[in-house]
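Notebook B, p. 112. Complex prediction, attempt 2.
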Amino acid sequence: MRDGVVVKGVQFRNHRIVGDILDLAARYCEEGADELVFYDITASPDERSVDRSWVSNVARVLDIPFCVAGGIRSLADAEDVLNKGADKISINSPALANPYLITELAERFGSQCVVIGIDSREEADGWFVYQYTGDPDKTTAAQRQTLDWVTEVQSRGAGEIVLNCMNQDGVRRGYDCEQLAVARDVSDVPLIASGGAGAMRHFLEVFVESDVDGALAASVFHSAEIPIPDLKRYLVENGIEMRS
Amino acid sequence: MSPVAIIDSGGANIASLLYAFERLDTKAVLTTDEGVIKAAEHVVLPGVGAARDAMQRLRDASLVDVIRGLQQPVLGICLGMQLLCEASEEEDVECLGIVPGTARKLDVAEGFTVPNMGWCETTIRGEHDLLKGVNDGSWFYYLHSYALPVSNYTLATARHSVEFSAIIGRDNFVAAQFHPERSSAAGAQLLTNFLGLNA
């Protein structure tokens, strides 16, 4: 989301508007999505918090869990979002700037609502964490190896990790199963795959090859290219257990 | 009709529960007021966060004996379910003791992460009006690190590294480990059934 509407980019650039929040939320809920994540990508780069009036509106219509990400930099920010009806908060850049925030959030609200988003990019010598990825001009390397950060956020109290593989984002060539499988090995908390879904088989691949707890996608759902009911039927037929 | 009283046991994230009742056209209020709680036809004990904080909050509000003495249908949700039981291993907290059992920490095991976050297939193990129209094998949304073992009061179970109580009931007290307010149609059915229970 940016400025109150849903947008989607390719590899974190060139975002275009894809629809109204409430319409999309209701549609995904009806179609059988198991959880929704709302990323306010303008939040961290602009050093302001999410415009939160929409959180209550979303909470009113949804009867599935949802997570809010973007601009949550303090206990007060988190409390506001949770009080408005979000089930989880996801933090990314602010956790890199102040890792102790993870512990504070977990102690105050419980690990189960503290999700850590990690933007990871593959480079010549390994996987590295990036921050402020909402704005291409401000995106910087966080000077951390991805797997070290995956381990550290858990020890600090993270209850879930969304690993977004930036090389794959929006290009629809499949999830980074290799990276996710390695991250799986060091994750005792739920791990959600993000970045790269372009076909139904990509979802099957990431569940089978990387043993992730969930698979997140945006482009293919926003465009209705992959209808959620079809995807779930396909996955169940291929032996993946899920609500359908 | 008096509204549903949702006991404020602390923690954030009560809004989703209020909205769930709103979707069922039922008025609900968040309260720690003894009078409001006693007068309500239905009482919900939710809970997010740590057991110790929640019990302390109930004690501070002098609600421990009030809850124990309630005669109308009471629904515990998530941590609220654990609060209804005898104790939680989470910091060895003594709870309300209304339903026998002690909440135990879930173990990380092959194929199972902790917290248990997500949709779990839920098996019906007993008969209760709370379960009317809820299909065996329905999926509900869970978000927890502690769980109650299966007991004589278990009405439904789900699986993690061990099988645990998903729904329990004793007299006018019922409880769910999952979040019915976030469990789509199956959750709405359960809440509707709860509102249909009589004292």
